[in-house]
## 1
Amino acid sequence: MKTNLIIVGILCSTILMGGCSKSDDTTETVTTTNTTSKNVGGTSTTKGDMTKTKYSVSNFIDLTASLPMDVEITFVEENRTEVTIECDAAIADKYTVKQNGTSIDITKKDGVKEIKTKNKTTAHITVKTLSAIKGLGASTIKFKNKLKREDLTLTLDEASSLTGDIEINMFVFDGKGASDTTVKGDSRKVTTTLDQGAVLNFNGNTEILKSTLSGASTFSLKGSSKAQTFNATLKGASTFNAIGVMTTDEFTVKADGSSTVMAEDLEIKKLDCICTTGSSVYVGKTTEIETKVTEASKLNYRGEPKFTKKESDITSTIEKSLL
């Protein structure tokens, strides 16, 4: 009886110890919920001194490019996502693609301070659609074909640039850091914020526009349509251009700090204009004007408008164009 008890004890101890240990050649898999970005794996092929690395990304709709490289985006009908970086073979291991849910970031690997290259680095993107695009670190982004969707948010900074054709219902743009953006196409509603010398050229038509500019930034709208409302707020020597034969029911302008509004071909039903501190506003044929112009500023208009409010100080002018 005593011998049986000893054997049972040894067996129990062995089972308990076995439950707490693992073999040296066994891989333990732990499933966790990760809310941070992960480096995405890829496969590389090298030809000459150039390497192409195709990254195993899953579906994404938000894209960030954080490095001085060309980013070429092709939009496709099918639900397909591909990211390939083409660069000098000597620096291919310095790049990475990080993914966090439906967002990816094309960037350098952790610990890499800078990437020096004599040849152009290009990221080739294939995707069905994108809802948000961010360009940083002097990246150059180009659409290979037109992006069509309900809404799009573009963010450009750090001397980055973007060019592309769009067909968007609601377009939101945030540019600063001497970024340079040109988009072509129509959007029912456009909202822009520009600072620090940013430039946005919007070549197309819109019904509702709200543009805020500061820090010597420039927004140019080139179209030929009838709009409901334009709203432009400028300060810090910024410039708003409306180019082309357009009409709008309402145009609200607040220009400050030596800013300029050039909209001489814009036909306006009602203009509400506050112009101050050395700023200038030039508008086309206008039906009704409410304005206050002070501190060495100028409002120049066309047509025979009805003034519902007309205020200026001795240093400023409100005058009809001679052209």
## 2
Amino acid sequence: MSKVDPQIAAMLSEKLIKEFCINNQVDSPQDIAMVLEMLISKSARAIEKYNGTATARKVCDKTSYQLSVSPCEWHRS
């Protein structure tokens, strides 16, 4: 059983991304996309390293699916 609360993980992830962008003056849509693309890539590789390629692909596929069926809940502020 996981010790990680999904809601807390989501909240912390959003906070870290926002703080990183603010602290490093990442504010253009292009720069935000580039930074977060690298974060997605590095995250997928970390999942692969510790859980295997199949699990990493499953997580990426699930994320891609959610993008196609659910509207964005974040709004720039």
